[in-house]
Amino acid sequence: MTTGGHGTDGVERRGLMFVLSSPSGAGKTTLSRMLIDRMPGLKMSVSATTRAMRPGEVNGKDYTFVDKATFDAMVKADELLEWATVFDNSYGTPRGPVDAALSAGQDVLFDIDWQGTQQLKQKARADVVSVFILPPSAADLEKRLHSRAQDSDEVIRKRMSRASDEMSHWAEYDYIVINHAVDEAFAEVQSILKAERLKRERRIGLVGFVRSLQGQLQG
Ligand SMILES: Nc1nc2c(ncn2[C@@H]2O[C@H](COP(=O)(O)OP(=O)(O)O)[C@@H](O)[C@H]2O)c(=O)[nH]1
Ligand SMILES: Nc1ncnc2c1ncn2[C@@H]1O[C@H](COP(=O)(O)OP(=O)(O)O)[C@@H](O)[C@H]1O
């Protein structure tokens, strides 16, 4: 699915799909924004959703907000790389921008749930790196959902009662980060991305690079 781009050291490599999942409120939106701001070569996948826009959200940036009929038409036309129903709403990843970014040699960041992560893994296991974010405690999770001040008490109750179900999928992920202090959690997530970018298997330019080094040594 992916074609090569160039790493910071100039060696061609396959693009990767970097997935963050967590129970709602554990901090994946915060960490995603920090990654996009601070990691060159990483592009956010903007999902389509039928859920209502929250105050402060921007259509086309945080999500593409669509009605159910539009979402169903996207599914039917096979325009979504993966999709799932979460909290009674539909969420899905438009395929076009992901393919375009990977073809242009960029990595793609996904804020999607465990169902979407499983679907991506089925399609491109070698190119998917998945990270599950855990809150330090249930009390912290609830505090964060309230501090975000964007959902009604009823919606927050629903999200808290779903948190345990969400968390039960932690063992399906490659890495687990506990989001105590946000700067530390960010440093950990950033380290994962940096290391995964150096993985030998995705650095398809290494054969040529080493050959050229050997040529220089012999010459
Ligand atoms: N499978 C899938 N899940 C998504 C997608 N976009 C968002 N989600 C997940 O849907 C859940 C609810 O997202 P949202 O309503 O924004 O609330 P949040 O949990 O506070 O970020 C989160 O677990 C997201 O990771 C998508 O395109 N596909
Ligand atoms: N390490 C942290 N410590 C305290 N508050 C945090 C931390 N990480 C995120 N938050 C806050 O918690 C709330 C939920 O975070 P958010 O990133 O929206 O979570 P998610 O996308 O997983 O639902 C936000 O108000 C955010 O500013």
From TrEMBL:
Gene3D superfamilies xref list: Guanylate Kinase phosphate binding domain, P-loop containing nucleotide triphosphate hydrolases
Reactions accelerated catalytically: GMP + ATP = GDP + ADP
NCBIfam families: guanyl_kin
Gene Ontology MF: a single term: ATP binding
Binding-site list for ATP: 22-29
Keyword annotations from UniProtKB, A to Z: ATP-binding, Cytoplasm, Kinase, Nucleotide-binding, Transferase
Keyword Transit peptide (UniProt): no
Record-given protein name: Guanylate kinase
Species annotation: Bradyrhizobium yuanmingense
Membership in a protein family: Belongs to the guanylate kinase family.
Annotated SUPFAM superfamilies: P-loop containing nucleoside triphosphate hydrolases (SSF52540)
EC number from the UniProt entry: 2.7.4.8
Domain of life: Bacteria
Residue ranges of every copy of the Guanylate kinase-like domain listed in the record: 15-194
